[in-house]
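BUG: 3D viewer hangs when loading the predicted structure for this chain

Environment: internal workstation, default settings.
Expected: structure renders.
Actual: progress bar stalls at 90%.

Input used:
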Amino acid sequence: MEWKVRAIRGATTVSENTVEAIREAVMELLDELEARNQIDYEEIISATFTTTRDLDAIFPAAIARSRPHWENVALLDVQQMHVEGSLERCIRFLIHLNTSVSQADIDHPYLRQAKNLRPDWSLSQDVPEESPVAQSRR
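Structure tokens produced before the viewer hung:
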């Protein structure tokens, strides 16, 4: 298969605007990203993190940069546009990478309350191991 630039999206929420809560949520989100996808860090082009306006205790990219293999990834933090009534205390990422994996085989982790943002992806992530969908992801 030929190599292409692919995007992986993901999101999570935090319980409060503290360094500890944000660190825990970002680490959990990146752990899920790595567990669900075969990431070769040399293939990552960049990662953009967004936060809702109610999160400002720490930059999510600073947390990512502290992880093994992330120190040379181009990282950026931005504040997400505020829309009245949207999900609060939410952290999202958009990661671009070069890969031979098809777009259909990329797993986009949506955790905690952020599962409600993409229920179509969240449901497919929770399939039983014996199901054909789970087996096709191997």
